[in-house]
Amino acid sequence: HNLALRGDGTIVAWGRNDFGQCEVPTPNVGFVEIAAGGFDSLARRADGTVVAWGRNGDGECNVPPPDTNFITIGAGQQHSLGIRATP
Question: Cα 86 vs. chain centroid, distance in angstroms?
Answer without folding.
Answer: 21
